[in-house]
Amino acid sequence: MRLFSVRLFAxxxxxxxxxxxxxxxxxxxxxxxxxxxxxxxKLPDRVATIVVGNPVIADAAVQSxxxxxxxxxxxxxxxxxxxxxxxxxxxxxxxxxxxxxxxVVVYRGVERDTYSCTPExxxxxxxxxxxxxxxxxxxxxxxxxxxxxxxxxxx
Length: 155
Fold this sequence. Notes:
The protein is of the alpha+beta class. It has 2 domains: about 30-100, Immunoglobulin-like (Sandwich); about 105-150, no CATH class. The protein is about 25% helix and about 40% strand. It has helices spanning about 1-20, 130-150; strands at about 30-35, 40, 50, 60-65, 65-70, 75-85, 90-100, 105-110, 110-115, 120-125. It is elongated, with a radius of gyration of 20 Å.
Protein backbone atom coordinates (compact mmCIF):
# COMPACT_ATOMS: atom_id res chain seq x y z
CA MET A 1 0.00 0.00 0.00
CA ARG A 2 2.87 2.37 0.83
CA LEU A 3 4.47 1.75 -2.58
CA PHE A 4 1.17 2.61 -4.26
CA SER A 5 0.99 5.90 -2.30
CA VAL A 6 4.54 6.83 -3.26
CA ARG A 7 3.84 6.08 -6.94
CA LEU A 8 0.59 8.08 -6.83
CA PHE A 9 2.41 11.05 -5.26
CA ALA A 10 5.16 10.84 -7.91
CA UNK A 11 2.57 10.69 -10.71
CA UNK A 12 0.74 13.75 -9.33
CA UNK A 13 4.04 15.62 -9.03
CA UNK A 14 5.00 14.81 -12.62
CA UNK A 15 1.56 15.86 -13.88
CA UNK A 16 1.80 19.18 -12.02
CA UNK A 17 5.29 19.76 -13.40
CA UNK A 18 4.10 19.02 -16.93
CA UNK A 19 1.39 21.70 -16.82
CA UNK A 20 3.41 24.30 -14.97
CA UNK A 21 5.67 26.89 -16.49
CA UNK A 22 9.37 27.43 -15.89
CA UNK A 23 8.71 29.27 -12.62
CA UNK A 24 6.65 26.36 -11.29
CA UNK A 25 3.34 28.18 -11.65
CA UNK A 26 0.46 26.81 -13.70
CA UNK A 27 0.16 28.62 -17.02
CA UNK A 28 -3.15 30.39 -17.61
CA UNK A 29 -5.05 29.59 -20.76
CA UNK A 30 -5.01 32.18 -23.54
CA UNK A 31 -8.81 31.96 -23.83
CA UNK A 32 -11.21 30.97 -21.08
CA UNK A 33 -14.87 30.21 -21.65
CA UNK A 34 -17.59 28.97 -19.33
CA UNK A 35 -19.24 25.61 -20.09
CA UNK A 36 -22.29 26.06 -22.37
CA UNK A 37 -21.41 29.68 -23.11
CA UNK A 38 -19.79 31.38 -26.09
CA UNK A 39 -16.95 33.84 -26.43
CA UNK A 40 -15.96 36.05 -29.36
CA UNK A 41 -12.32 36.09 -30.48
CA LYS A 42 -10.88 38.30 -33.23
CA LEU A 43 -9.01 36.33 -35.88
CA PRO A 44 -5.86 37.47 -37.66
CA ASP A 45 -6.14 38.40 -41.35
CA ARG A 46 -6.02 35.69 -44.06
CA VAL A 47 -7.34 32.79 -41.93
CA ALA A 48 -8.45 29.92 -44.15
CA THR A 49 -8.65 26.99 -41.69
CA ILE A 50 -9.42 26.63 -37.99
CA VAL A 51 -8.39 23.46 -36.12
CA VAL A 52 -9.67 22.70 -32.60
CA GLY A 53 -7.52 20.20 -30.71
CA ASN A 54 -10.40 18.52 -28.88
CA PRO A 55 -13.89 19.44 -30.13
CA VAL A 56 -15.45 17.66 -27.14
CA ILE A 57 -14.02 20.46 -24.93
CA ALA A 58 -14.60 23.47 -27.21
CA ASP A 59 -16.05 24.24 -30.61
CA ALA A 60 -15.25 27.13 -32.94
CA ALA A 61 -17.29 28.75 -35.70
CA VAL A 62 -15.90 31.42 -38.02
CA GLN A 63 -18.12 34.46 -38.51
CA SER A 64 -17.99 37.30 -41.02
CA UNK A 65 -15.82 40.28 -40.18
CA UNK A 66 -12.91 38.17 -38.97
CA UNK A 67 -14.53 36.90 -35.76
CA UNK A 68 -14.66 33.42 -34.31
CA UNK A 69 -17.19 32.14 -31.77
CA UNK A 70 -15.78 29.65 -29.27
CA UNK A 71 -18.34 27.58 -27.35
CA UNK A 72 -17.50 25.61 -24.21
CA UNK A 73 -18.66 22.00 -24.68
CA UNK A 74 -16.89 20.10 -21.87
CA UNK A 75 -14.50 20.81 -19.02
CA UNK A 76 -10.81 20.85 -19.74
CA UNK A 77 -7.99 22.37 -21.73
CA UNK A 78 -7.48 22.20 -25.48
CA UNK A 79 -5.98 24.38 -28.19
CA UNK A 80 -6.99 26.11 -31.38
CA UNK A 81 -4.83 26.76 -34.44
CA UNK A 82 -5.58 29.17 -37.30
CA UNK A 83 -3.88 28.53 -40.63
CA UNK A 84 -3.67 30.49 -43.88
CA UNK A 85 -4.20 28.94 -47.33
CA UNK A 86 -0.59 27.76 -47.55
CA UNK A 87 -0.76 26.05 -44.15
CA UNK A 88 1.27 28.63 -42.24
CA UNK A 89 0.24 29.05 -38.60
CA UNK A 90 -1.27 32.50 -38.02
CA UNK A 91 -2.45 31.91 -34.46
CA UNK A 92 -2.20 29.19 -31.82
CA UNK A 93 -3.93 29.61 -28.46
CA UNK A 94 -4.96 27.43 -25.55
CA UNK A 95 -8.64 27.27 -24.53
CA UNK A 96 -9.80 26.36 -21.04
CA UNK A 97 -13.45 25.53 -20.39
CA UNK A 98 -14.40 26.27 -16.80
CA UNK A 99 -17.43 25.62 -14.62
CA UNK A 100 -19.99 28.37 -14.16
CA UNK A 101 -19.68 30.41 -10.97
CA UNK A 102 -23.40 30.83 -10.24
CA UNK A 103 -24.05 27.24 -9.18
CA VAL A 104 -24.60 25.33 -5.98
CA VAL A 105 -23.43 21.71 -5.96
CA VAL A 106 -25.13 19.24 -3.62
CA TYR A 107 -23.46 15.92 -2.86
CA ARG A 108 -25.49 12.96 -1.62
CA GLY A 109 -22.80 10.37 -1.05
CA VAL A 110 -21.10 10.03 -4.44
CA GLU A 111 -24.08 11.42 -6.35
CA ARG A 112 -23.89 15.07 -7.38
CA ASP A 113 -26.74 17.46 -8.20
CA THR A 114 -26.19 20.97 -9.56
CA TYR A 115 -28.46 23.98 -9.15
CA SER A 116 -28.28 27.41 -10.76
CA CYS A 117 -28.97 30.01 -8.10
CA THR A 118 -29.51 33.32 -9.88
CA PRO A 119 -31.66 34.57 -8.15
CA GLU A 120 -33.55 31.40 -7.09
CA UNK A 121 -32.14 27.88 -7.13
CA UNK A 122 -33.35 25.64 -9.97
CA UNK A 123 -32.04 22.36 -11.32
CA UNK A 124 -29.26 22.74 -13.86
CA UNK A 125 -28.09 20.23 -16.46
CA UNK A 126 -24.35 19.94 -15.76
CA UNK A 127 -21.67 17.48 -16.83
CA UNK A 128 -20.68 15.30 -13.88
CA UNK A 129 -24.07 15.18 -12.16
CA UNK A 130 -25.44 11.83 -11.01
CA UNK A 131 -27.14 9.82 -13.76
CA UNK A 132 -30.66 9.91 -12.26
CA UNK A 133 -30.53 13.68 -11.67
CA UNK A 134 -28.97 14.35 -15.09
CA UNK A 135 -31.56 12.22 -16.92
CA UNK A 136 -34.45 13.82 -15.00
CA UNK A 137 -33.30 17.35 -15.85
CA UNK A 138 -32.49 16.44 -19.47
CA UNK A 139 -35.95 14.90 -19.87
CA UNK A 140 -37.62 18.03 -18.49
CA UNK A 141 -35.60 20.27 -20.82
CA UNK A 142 -36.40 18.08 -23.84
CA UNK A 143 -40.11 18.05 -23.00
CA UNK A 144 -40.16 21.83 -22.51
CA UNK A 145 -38.33 22.44 -25.79
CA UNK A 146 -40.77 20.10 -27.54
CA UNK A 147 -43.71 22.05 -26.15
CA UNK A 148 -42.15 25.33 -27.25
CA UNK A 149 -41.63 23.96 -30.76
CA UNK A 150 -45.18 22.57 -30.84
CA UNK A 151 -44.00 19.00 -31.45
CA UNK A 152 -45.38 17.50 -28.21
CA UNK A 153 -49.09 16.90 -28.05
CA UNK A 154 -50.84 18.05 -24.88
CA UNK A 155 -52.76 15.45 -22.90
